Amino acid sequence: MKIAIICFDDFTDLDVFLPWDLLNRVRLVGGIADWEVKLLGTAPSHVSMAGLRIPMHGMVEESNTMDAVLFASGRGVQPLFKDPAYLSRFQLTPDQQLIGSMCSGALLLGALGYLTGKRATTYPTAAAQLTAFGVEVVNESFVNNGNISTAAGCLAGQELSAWVIESLMGNEMTQRVLETVQPVGQGLEIVL
Questions:
Q1: How far apart are CA 91 and CA 169, in angstroms?
Q2: Phi, psi of 3 (to 5 degrees)
Q3: Phi, psi (5° rounding) for residue 41?
Q4: Cα–Cα distance between 150 and 118 in angstroms, integer?
Q5: In what residue span(s) does the DJ-1/PfpI domain sit (predicted)?
């Protein structure tokens, strides 16, 4: 299984690193050798909103053939969701791929037409922009529409990651991964 996290300059750190860590635990904790998570962008590296430069594993076009594609969020979304040249690099197939977003990354899904007529969530500051794509924006941390999901609030990255793991590997693997990050003394409460 191959999973892409789409990055760009001025991405929100936690919205990349929380799913990156959780999704990689399938390979590390579950021993699934053919599970691969890649950070994809439009340059060899991208700089987060906090100033951290991270290398990419490839270009965004690779996402077109991956099993799951998650779009990050952050200030960098604003110019990208209005850029036809950037959007044209994505030829995703929602009936065959899992496609998700964190917070304002939903604007990219909206601009690509994947959320039209659907319920979705995003960070409150991006809600009006997302509504303009014919989306019913709801005040929830995670919204699933079949192979398309949106999450809002950095810690909802756990729900988005759990959805990918559950969809591709099942409930047992999801529980194994989430148990490794739960605060000591607390049980699992993720409901998809």
A1: 24
A2: -125, 135
A3: -150, -160
A4: 11
A5: 1-163
